[in-house]
Amino acid sequence: MVNTDAVKRATRYDGKYLLRTNTDLEPEAVVRAYKDLWRVERAFRTLKSALDLRPMFHWTERRVRGHVMVCFLALVLESLLLRKLRQQNPEASYEDVLSDLAQLHAVAVELDGETYLTRTELVGQAYEAFKAVGLRPPARVQPMPRPATTPAG
User: What are the phi and psi torsion angles at 94 (to 5°)?
Assistant: First the structure.
């Protein structure tokens, strides 16, 4: 049996949520922070997919801390890139920029005894990422330094 009175009372909360915090933040700031949690979740998904990470099983505190630190750094870098992209070009889609960057590849090529690093063309909005962080994309072709040799002896 459904309690129709209870259902009617509950409908006034449809589409709303209650946040409780122990901070001194203004209510609007708490709501903004809560709504921004999706960025953290997206950052971890991006981290796992972009780096092709698989579940890791760490058994020592040092390794667990290291893994968490790498994840945190990825989140910080993603947040920084997102902020810089918005400042540089508000119309640039963050997802499109990442997708276009994923198509950028570099290959070592040997020619006449010399080794060169060559990269693919920048497609779509990939250049926006370099521009946002104040870097020039690497040259299409660049010589790779020869490894230092040590005298035999």
Answer: -60, -45
